[in-house]
Design goal:
The complex is a heterodimer of chains A (about 110) and B (about 110). Chain A has about 110 residues and is an all-beta fold. In chain A, about 0% of the residues lie in helices and about 50% in strands. In chain A, the strands form three sheets. In chain A, strands 2, 5, 6, 10, 11 and 12 form a six-stranded mixed sheet that branches. Chain A has a four-stranded antiparallel sheet with strand order 3-9-8-7, with no helix packed on it. Classes of the chains: A mainly beta (about 110), B mainly beta (about 110).
Amino acid sequence: GNSVTQMEGPVTLSEEAFLTINCTYTATGYPSLFWYVQYPGEGLQLLLKATKADDKGSNKGFEATYRKETTSFHLEKGSVQVSDSAVYFCALETSNFGNEKLTFGTGTRLTIIP
Amino acid sequence: DAGVIQSPRHEVTEMGQEVTLRCKPISGHNSLFWYRQTMMRGLELLIYFNNNVPIDDSGMPEDRFSAKMPNASFSTLKIQPSEPRDSAVYFCASSSQETQYFGPGTRLLVL
């Protein structure tokens, strides 16, 4: 079956530090991969996605590259800000037609200290 | 677009009472998902619909939970009778072309 394993949190960094949150997956077929972010008191929102091997998703300074050979989709940002404090979820979907359920990781809580 | 709309945003009820959570998906989206989030269990998919038809309800915890989608613009999640362990944040999400859009959630507290 499908599964997503992501870095245990919480993660605490100083402002302007480099961020990596690891995510690996197990899936049948050829999944699409996602990072969602949840800010305090809000629902999840899509941060970035990649639909095929070697694709790079990027948004708001965050990047993640779809690595089929290592079954990974690690999230990176070169210089984090206090406003990046949130919970980050890695997820995958294997439907060929979309609109199917996502398999989420457990989430990684990130706190950025000024 | 207003996004996914959920109501109520907060609900406090007593054990044994019926609770109904409501969701209006984004217009044109044909899949709808109900999730539950707690500190202990994280984010759990309860049920999802495609074109108003329930596709997978394997995440529904027990018979006290039921969900309906009578039309493309409305869905309900009902808990009857409610129990303290049902206290959680319940999210509705809708999707089109892979990306799911989440509502703000309903924070439920069962006393």
